[in-house]
Design a protein that fits this description.
By secondary structure, the protein is an all-alpha fold. It contains 11 helices and no strands. The N and C termini lie far apart (66 Å).
């Protein structure tokens, strides 16, 4: 009898206890999970860096209309921290889906806010800037949704198979390429922002008019603010604007010229990402319709 019982016991899988066979959870596994320390994903180091980026971005938006130097510094630091949160996530093993989404949403929002300002600074090019905002949001949303709907469970939106797109695979998997494209893309728009305060070629309102020295051809522009905005000509804002209008446009032009090809390449990648994600979703739709027996034969 003992030998029979032994053989019967050996026939059972060692990973399936009696409680599991009855539909209950493994008490030992539950005990091991309860012994693990509780974690707060919202307080992970990479996510704290993400919150800092948001604060810096909001501060840069506050200074954006009138203080180009302060705004550029705050905005640039916020963008550079984008590379630091990834390093922290890998070092402390704190890569999370929340952190990935927070990082992407912060990137989209900060760049869009800067492009909105450029639309008002360069009205003739407003349609182009609006198109860039739409392309940026559409491509990343479509790509994220396609990854969640069609990818494997827990697949990151940065995990791109070479068979789907070699360019996107290189862009997302090579950290150097990703940093260069993101950094120079932001640098181009920052350079345009500085040129709106320093280059009469792009901003004719900076040209002096016959109304007096230092005045602008357009009331309410940085060179000649409206009296409703500045009650006292000697205010701190007026002095800052006077310095801003004397900014040298040489370096902003250099930054814009150097970063323009990379910025253009980034927009091409956005188009590729949008097209590839759309095709991926369409493939999933066809498979789902075939599983449902559609289209039905007449």
């Amino acid at each position: 009898m003992n030998g029979v019982r032994t053989r019967k016991g050996a026939g059972k899988s060692p990973n399936r206890t009696e409680s599991q066979l009855n539909g209950h959870a493994n008490p030992r596994r539950e005990e091991s999970q309860s012994n693990q320390p509780a974690e707060n994903v919202f307080l992970f180091y990479p996510n704290i860096i993400g919150y800092s980026r948001i604060i810096l971005a909001i501060a840069s938006l506050y200074y954006m209309p009138l203080h180009p130097r302060t705004c550029s510094i705050l905005y640039s630091v916020s963008c550079l921290l984008d590379a630091l949160d990834g390093v922290a996530a890998r070092k402390f093993h704190q890569s999370t889906r929340f952190g990935a989404v927070l990082d992407m949403v912060t990137d989209r929002c900060t760049t869009s806010c800067l492009l909105v300002f450029l639309s008002s600074a360069f009205p003739r090019w407003a349609l182009l800037f609006q198109g860039l905002i739409s392309l940026d949001f559409a491509s990343h949303y479509m790509h994220m949704y396609a990854t969640l709907a069609m990818g494997t469970s827990g697949q990151s939106h940065k995990k791109i198979d070479q068979s789907r797109s070699k360019l996107l695979h290189l862009y997302y998997n090579n950290k150097t390429v990703l940093f260069i494209f993101c950094a120079l893309n932001e640098l181009f728009f920052i350079a345009l922002y500085l040129l709106s305060f320093s280059s009469p070629i792009l901003s004719p309102s900076l040209l002096p008019s016959n109304n007096g020295p230092g005045s602008s051809s357009q009331p309410g522009t940085p060179a000649n603010p409206s009296s409703l905005i500045f009650a006292t000509p000697g205010s701190a804002w007026a002095m800052e604007l006077a310095r801003a209008n004397k900014m040298d446009s040489f370096w902003p032009w250099v930054f814009a010229a150097v970063s323009f090809p990379v910025m253009a390449g980034k927009q091409i990648l956005n188009i590729i990402q949008l097209v590839k994600a759309s095709k991926w979703l369409a493939e999933g739709d066809i498979e789902a319709r075939r599983a449902q027996g559609l289209p039905k034969k007449k």
